[in-house]
Amino acid sequence: MDQARTTSQPPLLSIVTPVRNQAQFLPRCLASVRDQPHAIAEHIVMDGASSDGCAEILHRAHGLSHMRSEPDRGQSHAINKGFALAQGRFGAWLNADDWYLPGVLREVAAFLLENPETDMLVCRARFVSHDGRVVHEPIPPERIDEPALLSLRSAWFAGHSIAQPEVFFRLDLFREVGGLDEENHHSMDHHLWLKLVERGARVRQIRTLVACQGVHPGQKTADRLVATRSIITGSRAWLDRRAQHWPLQAPHVRAEIEALERKLELAARYTQAIDHAFAPERHDPSPHAPFSPSPRITPTGWLDSLQQAWNAGTHPSQSTLLVSPETHTTEADQIISRFGGTRITPDTLLNATAPANVSRLILHRALGDHPDAEALLRNACAALRPRGILIVSAEVSRSEPHDLYLKRLRTRAANKVTQPDDLIIGPRADVTLRPLLQSSPDRLIAHPWPRGLDLDSMISRMEGKPTPLADSRFGGFNHLPLAPFPVVPKLGPKSASGSFHECWRTISLMVNR
Known about the structure:
Strands 1, 2, 3, 4, 5, 6, 7, 8, 9 and 10 form a 10-stranded mixed beta sheet that branches. Strands 11-16-17-15-14-12-13 form a 7-stranded mixed beta sheet. Helix 9 (about 250-275) runs antiparallel to helix 14 (about 400-415). The chain is about 35% helix and about 20% strand. The chain has 2 domains: about 1-215, Spore Coat Polysaccharide Biosynthesis Protein SpsA, Chain A, CATH 3.90.550; about 295-395 and about 450-510, Rossmann fold (3-Layer(aba) Sandwich). By secondary structure, it is of the alpha/beta class. The longest helix has 28 residues, at about 250-275.
């Protein structure tokens, strides 16, 4: 469907707006162009067959030069189709969630008319969040050429970038370089600036603030890692093809891109582990009734939770066995110091070489780090004397705050790629993750229980129907690492009272055999 308005004289500017399912933002965008000085710009809107009411908004809109609502092959394709209809000498595109400031196109038009040699005019833009906060206000490089555009680390990601709605370019040059790359869905603007500069575009700048670029969770660039990978990959291909044309700057550009590629690889492993944690769980064809422990108690920390579980059961002749991975020596020493007993590794218990007939057995983080957690649980029960006490400490399965924490970690890892250091994990993060980042991705994503253990289901399958004695839930992000992910306490979600959510659990059971 095509709706068009003809004018007697071609405008100076052609503004193209691609839109798909952005009805909540579209009216503001349309009004920002419509309310500019008369006859300076035509507005062409390409709707990709939206299903949220965009077409209805466009039917009621006034002042559009062209409007089409039809399927397309993505944003770049829609923009190219829009500029194919354009009659202006200069073009720009304004996404549906962006907007121009009042009256600014008059100043843009005046500059272009007074400086007819201009091929590409770069102004200024702000990034504004959905609640009205200015979150970023980039300043373009002083000299806009290929090396400057490819200096991603020291320039582009350091705030010296070019925001797409602040640029106006000569349309005959745009068509000469082939328009936007329709296979590029995330960094097509950066690629276009490179193509225009390579073709010899005469670039001019003015400091006029012309546009605001909306920032919200639903936009395509919200997945920072995908957008960052796109611009790094495109820049590497450009460097390999064009470096011989600027040999003095090429080593600097190459060093920056190589550093970003190394960080991108680490971040990809890191986020792959998080994405693996969110993969759909396998269907359990034989669900069991949930285990129902005694009323919950609220300890102050992990050692306190073990103490309360310890106090919940007694035995006249006590011998204690601690099962804890070798990687948690400090915690194991604290437990032995407080409760006494002997420490063994999970593999020792799994191989049935552990001491037998003990009265108390503590599984501290042993289940959550082992692929065969149920076998460990069965062997632990077998090692206990009749009516022995089993204490299990592990992450709560699939808790909401845990999931929110992992999503924050993913966002943080993606954001770290563009920061000027060489770290993906901060210097105070859990050191156990750093060696994993240097290993194969398969090892990192092989953690058996990345979102915690379903202790209720596991205990319900145990023979002998153990008797619940105590159930403690406590903090998490400030207590123990969420394996296999690092501890970043400031990212941990908090309750309304400001305390940490309960992401860890300690259960005390009497084993009936």
